[in-house]
Amino acid sequence: MNILAIESSCDETAVAIVRDGRKVLTDCIASQVALHREYGGVVPEIASRKHIEAIYSLADAALAESKLTRREIDAIAVTYAPGLIGAVLVGVNFAKAAALAMDVPLIPVHHIRGHIAANYLAFPELEPPFLCLVVSGGHTMIVEVKDYTVMRILGTTLDDAAGECFDKVARVLGMPYPGGAALDRCSQGADSTKYALPRSKPGANPYDMSFSGLKTAAINCIHHAEQVGERMDIPALCASFSAAVSDTLVPRVEMALRETGLKKVAIAGGVAANSRIRTALLACAQSCGASVYLPPLKLCGDNGAMIGSQAYYEYLAGHTADMTLNAYATKSLLGEAL
Ligand code: KG4
Ligand code: ZN
Q1: Distance CA 132, CA 180 (A)
Q2: Quick check: CB of 136 below 6 Å from ligand 1?
């Protein structure tokens, strides 16, 4: 089954064609990152307009690159939630028009389910059940993937997402948007114990997390140094911050592995590219006797292929939509409206 998949929830317009959920025939991306960099973050209105400009030619390019004809496309998939509402709407409207015109099923895909499915593309042998640490620019959660479309959220951030904090701290350090990768690079080989930053334990659920206090503490640390004219060890601050994020995430994953007895752990989302988190997760899996799945960096960020992969399993589960499909800025990974 060949699925043409569309992703437009943030600042990348992406169109991919994926066969049977696992084989990527083509994966085209038009990134707007350079455009938003000037503003230090994504400007939603500009993102929506750029998606409209890019999506038609990108879909044509994806089809041409796959060497398939339109008749060989069996379904259209699209990210319908969550994301910047105007941006998601562009993809949803394009997908509805394409499905109608081509007379094929329309498959709505939750963006975070797509991030998780990036692991199916990277690891053909991976099948549920497994545990997945989801860390993106907008979401941070520990998910038990019971089956391809059946999930349980063990814990989530109660405030900021990890990626958002990476980007805010990087911005205060003068790194260009999105600064997570630059902060990660800057931290390499530096002393991660030099700056004492908090590891919070919020709420009653031990799997829940909080990052806003850590973000504020790191930013205060930078501002304080500026005010008293102290020279900061920037690489050490980046390393200390990354270590605090990792120490918030990975012990909870370890607890979840031990409690659920699952023997497989994967990671998903843009922050899954972080070197310290990857190393810590690897060590955590080893100590629990679990297999670890760390997708290549290209599959960690937003892309269309991950939507095409998850779409196949949504289709098998009967999760298709009609022309009343809408876009949602927020929606739970489990499917119900927030
Ligand atoms: O999943 P994603 O592409 O977009 C969302 O769905 O939100 O994630 C983007 C996030 C950004 O916050 C970016 O700074 C972060 O992933 N990121 C990183 C690294 N590479 C990307 N954060 C920390 N370390 C990295 N190496
Ligand atoms: Zn994403």
Answers
A1: 20
A2: yes
